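Closing statement on the zinc ion sub-project.
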Amino acid sequence: MMSSMESVKALIGSERPLREVAQALHFSVRSMSAPVVGAMHLTCSDESEHECIDMLQQGFVQYLLPSLKFARQSAFRLANLGGRYEWSAARLAENHFATPQAENRFKLLLVKINSHVAYEEQPGKKFRLGLWQRYGVESACCGALAQLLSGGVRLPHVDDLAEAFDSEGHDRISALKDPARVEPLYAPLYAAMVSSRLQARKAVLDIQDYVPGSPTYYVVLPCVTVNRAERDTEIVCGMYTIDGREGGTEAVYTGLGDLPEGYEIGWEHGRFRITDEHLGLERKGRDHRAMVRERAATSRLKVHDDRLERVRADVARNKHKHHSHARELLRIALPVLAEVAPIPAVMLAFADGAVGIHHAFKIHRIAGEMKDTDEARRILDDIEAQIDQLSPDRAEALLELLVSDYK
Ligand SMILES: [Zn+2]
């Protein structure tokens, strides 16, 4: 079946009224004839995002979602500082909308992710972004992204944003602060775009790494709300679709990239139009576990340790397949590996699925730098603490993978 999300796709990169985006989503989703439609909406906590939340409610949620109570429809909502995706949120939302009507056919789950930026006309100058007169006082908007860019702030939400902005070997914060790479006037807008793109990627990783309660077609939409004195507008930065109607988990992405230095700004009827080299191309989402598996294969360490040799000998004689002996052997092997080769071990464990997908960015960083042994050990400790929860098959597979690499 052809994707019917074409009218949403056509909006990508263009600043449009909130209502227009909600309507395009409404009509596109309706044309997919899903027996059940669910929605999750992630925004920043900032009160200026109320308008964006309200418009999705009025233009989409109230028409398409099941009634939670009599004539009351509601999206699953996440609002926090900076609009950060919280791991497992899309899974919980999916679970809520896995209603009996969705079981036999499928449901469509919209995961809309908004970051935001203020736009203010300036007397004498054209305009400014990221600052406005809130209640008559100059105020950053988005305040959380402003904290991230100002640097030197160590708070949980800033660290969390920074991890995403630093992911996959790109220092996007430095790029945003470098006038040679990003025009300072547009840095707050580009920061918001990059942020929603990266948070959407986290949601997609989360979705791809588990089995939903009922077959689901996911639409993950990174957007930026432009908070204006008049009605707010919105830029759809891209769209991921994951067609899980037949159980597939492959993500297809179309839209803008996540590097701020790649964006180019233009104007269309007095509104922003952003382009970059990725716009208009469709590509498959990356498989982060496979990426780490490949990397692990090229960074094998030769480790000689008597304790590991004994575990290997047991595995070679298939002893680990008896009773729950694999778990016993893991209990021996994991602390040894944490001691002698924590980084390669944690990479293999992640590739195997034994480390939660929420560690994806962290694992990429550890694998790239090959020096944060403390973090690698912490993750290995977590695996060790959960050995009892591993099924015998999983324990065997993980053990084989871990010891086969140290010949
Ligand atoms: Zn904000």
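The radius of gyration is 23 Å. With this model delivered, the sub-project is considered complete and its resources will be redirected to Aim 3.
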